[in-house]
Amino acid sequence: MSRIRVQKVSEQMKKELADIVRTSVKDPRVGFATITRVEVSGDLQHAKVYVSVLGSEEERSATISALTKAAGFIRGEVARRLHMRVAPELAFRLDESGEYSARIEHVLKTIRTSESPSAGE
User: Fold this and answer.
1) Residue from 37, 11, 46 nearest 98 by CA
2) Element (H or E) spanning 118, and its range?
3) CA–centroid distance for 72 within its chain
4) How much is the CA Rg of the chain, to the nearest whole Å?
5) Which of 28, 33, 70, 77 is the most core-located residue (most Cβ within 10 A)?
6) C-alpha span between 13 and 40 (Å, rounded)
7) Over 70: is that where the pLDDT of 120 sits?
């Protein structure tokens, strides 16, 4: 499969997954979840879905658990919406890149404020 096709399928899956999670998944454990990216294998058989969840660690793990449990339903919806004969097997992963970048920003801000008084000397 060409890389361009895989990228297009990945992007379209991201859009559809976001809509499915927002509108069709009725599990109350699914909190404020955002699909950040989808990585599809070259043969379109497997897809890693990265999800960012706002909330405590408990809420994050509950959301991933609920999405994993609903993976069969979500996979069927993706196949129907994208008109695919076989939809990729979905593996949901917690995306912590937002938290990581916020932590880096906080460290940089701390460094800047600690250097500011000494810059005036």
Assistant:
1) 37
2) helix 97-119
3) 17
4) 19
5) 33
6) 9
7) no
- Interval 67-111: pLDDT, tens: 999 999 999 999 999 999 888 999 999 988 777 788 888 888 888
- Report the chain's terminal Cα–Cα distance, integer Å: 61
Residue of 75, 78, 65, 58 lying closest to 27 (CA atoms) = 65
SS3 59: helix
Superfamily of segment(s) 3-96: K homology (KH) domain (3.30.300.20)
* pLDDT at res. 117: 63
Place of tokens 């919406």: 81
The 10 Å Cβ neighbour count of residue 97 is 11
Going from N- to C-terminal start, the domains of the chain cover 3-96
Closest CA to 65 of 97, 88, 41, 31: 31
Q: Whose CA is closest to 67, among 81, 44, 47, 43?
A: 47
